[in-house]
Specification:
- By secondary structure, this protein is mostly helical.
- The protein has two helices and no strands.
- The protein has helices at residues 2-28, 57-96.
- The longest helix is centred in the C-terminal third of the chain and has 40 residues, at 57-96.
- The radius of gyration is 19 Å and the shape is elongated.
């Protein structure tokens, strides 16, 4: 249970680090928006023009970096969920015995 607690703390620190990078990338270009939980897509959105790598190379590369970080963030959240369920089950076994 102590190992699970240490793993959860480490994963939380990693999650906070990833979130700070996402916020940093969002602040570099106002077109990215302020959301930390949403991907930016490459397909055309109704009423908006799709931006390809040829149109705005710097923005597209920035958006792709941010999308990779968001994918990593979701992966860490998924791992935190499973580790927390394992920790909770060990805690309940300890309390109920």
């Amino acid at each position: 249970m102590i190992l699970g607690t240490i793993i959860l703390i480490i994963l939380y620190i990693i999650l906070r680090y990833i979130l700070s990078w996402i916020i940093y990338f969002n602040s570099l270009d106002p077109r990215l928006g302020t959301s930390t939980w949403r991907w930016s897509y490459d397909y055309p959105v109704f009423g908006d023009r799709d931006i390809s790598d040829l149109d705005d190379k710097i923005f597209v590369r920035l958006r792709r970096k941010r999308n990779k970080l968001i994918t990593l963030m979701y992966s860490v959240v998924f791992i935190i969920f499973f580790v927390s369920m394992s920790w909770l089950s060990k805690f309940l076994i300890l309390v109920l015995n």
